[in-house]
Amino acid sequence: MTDDEVLAEFRASHALLEGHFKLSSGRHSAHYLQCARVLMNAERAGKLARALCQKIPREIRSQVEKVVSPAMGGVIIGHEMGRTLEVDAVFLERPSGTFELRRGFDVKEGEKVLLVEDVVTTGLSSGEAIKAVRKAGGEVLAAAALVDRSAGEADFDVPFFALVEINFPTYAPGEVPPELAAIPLEKPGSRKG
Whole-model pTM? Predict the structure, then answer.
């Protein structure tokens, strides 16, 4: 899929929002990608997962034994990536602030893992998820996301692949431009606060 085709899928599902948003990273933006909306259609989610899978080199794809995603945003795309790669997909949760495997999910010692997210902005959540997988004994081969909006700033010690790069400006809380600050703030993500 081309970048324009990917963005068309976001627009068709009303997943590309405009306003004043506080992102899960704490930064502010005039644009928000509601990946849950683009992924609510199973056919579309599968198509996007297959396209993302094609961005990952075959030598990495062929080694993946399990897909792990951070909840909530990564759950659907992680599941679809597991289906595409024909491996199990599990997710991490933050019941007390740090990622952990729950619900009987596990990662075996040395198991080769692909970490899958919906959107990467700062890379902080993905980095924390990678640490949790390693703590559980897994070997993270690569990270992947539907959308990289980090402007190349996300830095993992594993290869990172994104279906599309979108670089809408984001602002630290004290740096929000007046025209954006005048718009009521929304927090549409899964983490409130």
Answer: 0.84
Residue 13: inside a domain = yes
Domain count within the chain:
1
Collect all residues with Cβ–Cβ distance below 8 Å to 96 and sequence separation of at least 6.
none
Cα 55 to chain center, whole Å? 15
Q: Is 95 exposed, middle or buried (0-12, 13-18, 19+ CB in 10 A)?
A: exposed
Domain of 176 in residue numbering reads as 3-186
Q: What is the domain-level CATH number for residue 151?
A: 3.40.50.2020
CA-to-CA distance for 22 and 16, rounded, in angstroms? 15
Longest Cα pair distance anywhere in the chain, in angstroms? 51
Per DSSP bridges, beta strands 28-33 and 170-171 are: antiparallel
Q: Look-up: residue for tokens 């539907």?
A: 146
What phi and psi, each to the nearest 5 degrees, are found at residue 58?
-55, -40
Per-residue pLDDT tens digits for 108-164: 999 999 999 998 888 888 999 999 999 999 999 999 999 998 888 888 999 999 999
> Considering the domain boundaries, does residue 193 fall inside one?
no
Residue 191 in domain: no
